[in-house]
Amino acid sequence: MPSLSRDLSRYLPEEGWFRFNPRGIHGGPHTTRVLVWAATLVDALAAPGALRREELLWAAAVHDVGRVDDGIDAGHGRRSAARVLEHLRGVRPETAALDLDFVAELCRWHETNDRDIGHLSLELVILKDADALDRCRIYDLDPGRLRLARSLGLIADAERLERATNQYGTVAPADVLAAFEGLFPAGHGD
Questions:
Q1: Which of 91, 125, 87, 90 is nearest to 106 (CA)?
Q2: Does 190 fall in a domain?
Q3: Average pLDDT for residues 111-130, to the nearest whole number?
Q4: 188 within a domain of the structure (yes/no)
């Protein structure tokens, strides 16, 4: 069985995809940690094929590429969704067979309050929780905002991975995967 980090290496975002600070607090290191926790959650919660894993993992990798700053940046989900639809097939041809409209939908809604979303799919819940787990990087991880019981069990692991990869400006997405593999060699942060 391949390691989770090797499985995820094909999703790693390229620095040129980000409109703002590709190695900053919402750049590649962050999106890679979100990717790790999204993969961990989807693999723990659903049988293979039960969820749209590929689309979810691509959304995790690109959910913040449309940001223009590190603040609240209202609308960054919509801008990230637009970038997915405009560019992802061109930069990653292997995504041509995927439902990129669904990837864009996940990106668009990830920043929206749950009560303002008409249909909260399990894929979106997983993306939102994976993103919330990495709020430890800004000292704002609130367990009360996590939706899944399984996510609560990942808080200590999320904090550990963030501490190992929070040298913003120098850490690349591949460094985050390597750190994950070193910290959790048995797999998935269990």
A1: 125
A2: no
A3: 97
A4: no
